[in-house]
Amino acid sequence: MIRLGVNIDHVATLRQARRGDEPDPVAAAILATLGGADGITIHLREDRRHIQDRDARLLRPVVTTRLNLELAAVESIVEIALEILPEEATLVPERRQELTTEGGLDVVAHEKSLLSHVRRLQGAGIDVSLFIDPDPAQIDASHRLGATAVEFQTASYSEAKTAPERERQREKLALSARHAHERGLHVHMGHGLNYHNVQAIAALAHVEELNIGHSIISRAVLVGLERAVREMKAAIGSSDDKATR
Ligand code: PXP
Predict the structure, then answer these.
(1) Active site residue 43
(2) Nearest residue to 69 (alpha-carbon basis) of 109, 121, 32, 24
């Protein structure tokens, strides 16, 4: 059975829009777990645009499945990972201007500088996953680094404009999954997966974990809206009762 890691960053994005205290990512993690999530994924970005240090610290004891902390390979964030001790750390590239993580980590170019981060995290008992493009050279470099897993960036598949292009990208992911598996790497995938395009990815051999955020949180907003409005009408109604008394 493939594990589903639910990325709850967008819950924090909504909270940070008002710099208030709702919606709370900790509550979201509990509800996602009740819904069957096999793990909770959060990205502690250097610019702290959504998840805050406090969230990561509070989520640690609350998440009793698997906590997957996505992070850039920078000293200050690695230090936080070593303090929090998630089950899994996924190293991702990070650019300040980007809307979300764009492209995979260039492990080939940064093999040397990544090595110490990978070793320190693994030394603390954390599984290290590298978020890479489905490319043989990146897989081989991840293998040389001794990564526990690779997470293939699925954006080229999920953003493909035509069916033949989507199929081409799916094939590339299938070949990459086999290549990584043959080298003893666990295979994860994520980015842009939704209720319509996930089946073809979940059907690929060797995939063990999918990390999905935007589509789940987007759907949660819509499926929850009717109830939320009813509850507000009821809250307003109860104040009407008082006014007429
Ligand atoms: N995996 C990684 C490494 C990511 O950076 C993200 C986005 O934060 C995801 C998975 C989830 O992508 P999406 O929000 O598009 O489902």
Answers:
(1) yes
(2) 121
Hey, whose CA ends up nearest to atom 12 of ligand 1? 191
Average pLDDT over residues 167-174: 98
191 is a catalytic site residue: yes
Beta bridge partner(s), residue 149: 129, 186
CB 155 within 8 A of CB 192: yes
Q: What is the extent of the structural domain holding 194?
A: 3-237
In the predicted model, what is the mean pLDDT of the chain? 95
Q: Is position 167 within any domain?
A: yes
d(Cα 79, Cα 236) in Å, to the nearest integer?
47
Active site residue 50: no
Q: Is the pLDDT of residue 243 over 80?
A: no
What's the domain count of the chain? 1
Among 69, 70, 73, residue whose Cα is nearest residue 113: 73
Separation of CA 35 and ligand 1 centre (Å): 19
The answer to the question of residue 169 being in a domain is yes
Binding pocket residue ranges, ligand 1, CB within 6 Å: 7, 9, 43, 70, 90, 92, 100-101, 131, 151, 190-193, 211-215
Tokens of 191: 């980015």
